[in-house]
Design goal:
This protein is an alpha+beta fold and 405 residues long. The chain has helices at 268-278, 284-299, 309-322, 357-360, 364-371, 373-390; strands at residues 2-8, 11-16, 59-61, 79-80, 82-84, 100-105, 124-125, 131-134, 137-142, 147-153, 157-164, 167-175, 182-191, 194-201, 208-216, 222-227, 230-232, 237-240, 243-251, 255-264, 302-305, 327-328, 335-337, 343-345, 352-353, 396-398, 401-403. The strands form eight sheets. A nine-stranded antiparallel sheet has the order 8-9-10-11-20-15-14-13-18. A hairpin with a 3-residue loop joins β10 and β11 (157-164). The chain is globular and about 55 Å long.
Length: 405
Amino acid sequence: MKILALLWLGVLATLNLNLCGQTPAPKDYTRLVDPFVGTGEHGHTYPGAVLPFGMVQVSPDTRMANWDGCSGYHHSDSTLLGFSHTHLSGTGAPELCDILLMPTTGAVQFQSGFGSPGNQGYLSTFRHNHEQATPGYYSVFLDKYRIIAELTATERTGFHRYTFPSSSTSNIIIDLKHRGNILESSLSFPDDSTITGHTVTTGWADQKSIYFFARFSKSFERKGIAIHDTLQAGINQASGTNLKAFVGFTTGDQEQVLVKIGLSAVSVEGARKNLMAENPGWDFQSIRESARCKWSRQLSRIEVTGGTDKEQRIFYTALYHTSLAPNLFMDVDSLFRGQDHKVHKAVGFTNYTVFSLWDVFRTQMPMFTLTEPQRMQDFLRSFLSMYQLGGRIPRFEIFGKLSDD
């Protein structure tokens, strides 16, 4: 069933309302999307990997929390701090950018070096002509370390592939402090290929909890935890407000080390279940292709004909950005953390978060009644849950926390 939706810049658009979740899109709509649109000036978008309405947004961060860096990334930058797993798109205040990873070689460093002279710290220079982004995938070459970093995602997990040079001192830094105002955090090495932990942060979203379960494709030859940027000898777990860690390997030339990370707002066990359910293997290309297919199906909900290629790219890039939020906000077992800070189970609906209702009630939400009728019911059920648990329908809600702004 196709319904005429609009006539826009000479492009005829129709809604495809008979889409099945498993039916491939008739063409690859992702080629019409440029995730770098909006990453300059004050667009506050991010170029990283995410699925439609996904809970995880794994993306590069190039600056700390300030007005220009609300999304973590700004196209005018030439240094990169690492890759974190939660991001907001298009907002006017910095938030999220939780659980940062950065691959390096050489001496282990626990400070990013952001704002310091001479690019000290673990950050790296990069060039935009060595950067690529398509829906569900991002890659960049880190000049300082000669490492290729690639990112893709499932709904609740991030997937990293790092191609290292030959080195006896290849490392991956894990920074829980990064941009967050940390109230509490923890790190643990349960074995020589796994890191787990959590953070509780305050900011635009007060007392926001994130738990993670990270598994590595290569066993650690070296590992350590730093408290307040000082490496602590002989410990496998720690808690505090400024925790970082590293793992180290010997790598051959062009050797790939993969990291997959499940997130949860409920528990480390919830993050582990999410990872095992959505990405139990190590096939990066398969996860990347699945992400591309899901985005192509999502974008094919509106089919346009006519217009120039540029006009179609403008249209589908805008449509792509409408599908970055709201975000899935429950584990594979339907558990989620509510506005009362307690764990609840979504019964009969899928729970979502990141509702900027004072911005989108007259634009995005009316469109979703046409393009996302089933998901719109879940959005409304999520609103009712927020009212029951928090006492009011949100004006702006982030990761289970009602904002007064």
